[in-house]
Specification:
Layout: E1 4-7, H1 11-23, E2 27-30, E3 34-38, E4 51-54, H2 57-62, E5 75-77, H3 80-88, E6 93-96, H4 101-107, E7 115-121, E8 133-144, H5 149-154, E9 160-163, H6 166-179, E10 187-190, H7 193-199, E11 205-208, H8 214-225
Parallel strand pairs: 1-2, 1-9, 4-5, 4-7, 5-6, 7-8, 9-10, 10-11
Antiparallel strand pairs: 3-8
C-alpha cells in the first residue's frame, strides 16, 4: 500500500499540487495550514515603474481589479507557476526565475528594470534589489490556521509530508508539538534547504527537492510513496 501524501499549502496551490500528484498515481490528502486572503492596498502609478515583480501566484489571484492597471509592465516571475498565473491574467512575462526572488533579481541585466514594483504577501522575506529601486506593496496575507482533522487523521499513520515554505514548516512543527504528534514516523519532503532547516530534525526521513518546484518535489514523493 502506498504512503499517503499530505499537502499543506494554501488551497489554490494545494489543488494544483494534488492534480499533479494524482497524475503520478499518488494517494493525496489536502488540508491547508493557511488561508490566503486579500488585504486593502493602494495602487501606485504604473508609469513610475518599468518592471513588475511577482513572487507568488497568490498575488495574481488576490490583487483584485487594481491589478489590470499594471498590464503595461513586463513581469518578472519567481517561477513557472507564477509565470503561468500572470500569463493567464493577460500579463507579458519577460523573466522567469529558477530558484528564488533573489536569484531572479541577481540574474537581471544591470541596465534592465531599474524601477521595480513588487506586489507581495504581507509576510515576505526581504530581497536585495542592488542598484535598482524597488517598491514593495503587500496585497494579500496568508493566515495560519490549526492543523485540520484530515491532516491529523493522516498523521496517525506513516505519511509523506510536502512542505513548500519555511513559514509552513515552522507552523507545522508547532502544531505537532501542540497535538503531541511526534514526527519520527513521517517522511518530510522539503521545497528547499531553507524549508528543511525550518522543519528541524527528528523526521523518519528528510529529502530536499533538487529545484524549488512541484515537479522536483513530486519526483521525490513518487520514489518514496510508491516504494512502500
Amino acid at each position: 500500500m502506498t504512503l499517503p501524501l499530505l499537502i499543506l499549502r494554501p488551497l489554490e496551490g494545494a489543488r494544483q499540487t494534488e492534480r499533479r500528484a494524482k497524475d503520478l498515481g499518488l494517494r493525496t490528502v489536502v488540508d491547508p495550514l493557511f488561508n490566503v486572503e486579500p488585504i486593502a492596498w493602494t495602487a501606485p502609478l504604473p508609469e513610475n515603474f518599468d518592471g513588475l515583480l511577482l513572487t507568488s501566484a497568490n498575488a495574481v489571484a488576490h490583487a483584485g481589479a487594481r491589478l489590470k492597471s499594471f498590464r503595461t509592465l513586463p513581469v518578472l516571475a519567481v517561477g513557472q507557476a507564477t509565470a503561468r498565473a500572470a500569463g493567464d491574467a493577460g500579463f507579458h512575462v519577460v523573466e522567469t526565475g529558477r530558484s528564488s526572488g533573489q536569484q531572479l533579481l541577481d540574474d537581471l541585466q544591470a541596465d534592465c528594470y531599474r524601477r521595480i514594483l513588487w506586489l507581495a504577501g504581507e509576510q515576505h522575506s526581504a530581497l536585495n534589489p542592488g542598484e535598482r529601486e524597488m517598491t514593495v506593496v503587500p496585497i494579500y496575507r496568508s493566515r495560519a490556521i490549526a492543523l485540520g482533522e484530515q491532516a491529523v487523521a493522516c498523521l496517525k499513520q506513516e505519511a509523506a509530508v510536502l512542505l513548500h515554505s519555511a513559514r509552513a514548516a515552522r507552523h507545522l512543527v508547532a502544531e505537532l508539538e501542540r497535538l503531541r504528534i511526534t514526527p519520527d514516523q513521517h517522511h518530510l519532503l522539503a521545497f528547499s534547504e531553507k524549508v528543511a532547516d525550518a522543519a528541524g530534525r527528528g523526521w523518519k526521513s528528510l529529502q530536499i527537492a533538487d529545484r524549488p518546484d512541484d515537479e522536483s518535489l513530486l519526483s521525490l514523493a513518487t520514489g518514496l510513496c510508491q516504494s512502500r
